[in-house]
Amino acid sequence: MTEQQWQHDYAMLALRTDRLMIESSRGGLLIYTGPPEWSTEVEAEPPAAPERLSDEAGRLLETAPSAYLAGQVRALRAVVRDLGGERLPLAEYARECLGLEPRRLPDEVFEAAHAELDAALPKGTGSVAERLQAWQAAHTLEPIERLPELVARAVAETRARTNATIIELPENEVVGCRLAEGVAFHAAGAYEGDLRSTIHINKSIPFNLADLLYVVAHEGHPGHIAESMLKEIHLADRPDQRVRFMLSPSFMLSEGLGLLAEEILFPGDEAQTWLNRHIFPDTGIRPDGSDLAAIHHAKNVLWGVWGNATFLADDGATDEELAAYLARWSLYSEAEVAMVLPQIKAVSPYFFGYFHGWDLLRSWVTGPEDVRRLLTEQLLPADVTPEPV
Questions:
Q1: In this model, does residue 184 exceed pLDDT 90?
Q2: Can you tell which superkingdom this protein's organism belongs to (predicted)?
């Protein structure tokens, strides 16, 4: 098989798999910008049987041009097998999809994050959860319609720092902000091609302005938008870069980079200093003695609660048990628990990618060159995993 034929068959496998996911109500997980006639062909044909797609994935695995593409195909094969009723143990299923086997984190990891929050939040008499929720409320933007203007300021700063310290960015790039309704996400960065992107933010969720750089760096620069744009430029000769399956090893690294992005650009207390100078004075927020960097570090650790809760859901935990676990360890309010519970019950391996991707990259990224590689190369978790001593 020529590589050109392989690339065609790989794209068709991804399109057919994504169609099955959509029709099974799991939702699409494919970002496709390849030849439109291929997607039109898949839309017009009868849905493919999962067994046929599994066989096709096996055939493509045997001749994959690179380890990176083998990882993408292995993820697609795991998903179509799951769609066909072949249930693997959750950790094994996640390993096939993400290229790294997730682990259940001990409660001591979350206890340490709670202690970090206790020291970082403004002093008070309530519990850590109550003080965290009060801190978030004190930083909530009112009205939220002001957010696009503030996001634009943060985009300008994160772009400038990325351009100066990590990699040169196109001068004529345009990044907008749109307040979205009726969506399940809090924020999402979408690269639309031709150097244009949009950061979508759910207007029905209160926006914590202390998280402005945390969100914009994750979704924009040096996070998702920068990665999509730069790989389109640097990997223009790779047609498979236009076929991006989200439940895959590459996206685990993307989410890890997203969670690490603010710390990369704003080491130490620089994020808090910038917000105090450029955002908080215009919105009536006064310094309160909190340690923003420590709060965001603890927040990244607590993404591990999502993974543990996914394991519990797979074990058959009741809604009440899941809600209690999330409230206890994630420190979510009742409303926040109600919002994330349906996502946890879907038992998707994707949620393991946040904590484990961040945990993997925070020990691997030691300077700008490592970030440049994440933004311009096709890497796998195995490429950034330290060799055993």
A1: no
A2: Bacteria
330-349 average pLDDT score: 92
Please state the pTM of the whole predicted model: 0.95
Q: In this structure, are strands 187-193 and 196-202 parallel, antiparallel, or unpaired?
A: antiparallel
Q: Which of 123, 120, 103, 113 is nearest to 328 (CA)?
A: 113
Burial readout 206-230 (b: 16 or more C-beta within 10 A, e: otherwise): ebbbbbbbbbbbbbbbbbbbbbbbb
Which H helix or E strand runs over 175?
strand 174-180
CA angle, 273 then 152 then 254, to 5°? 80
Q: What pLDDT is recorded for position 389? A: 43
Residue 1, pLDDT score: 78
76, 13 contact by CB (below 8 A): yes
Please name the residue that has the structure tokens 């409320």. Answer: 137
- How far apart CA 343 and CA 357 sit, in angstroms, is 19
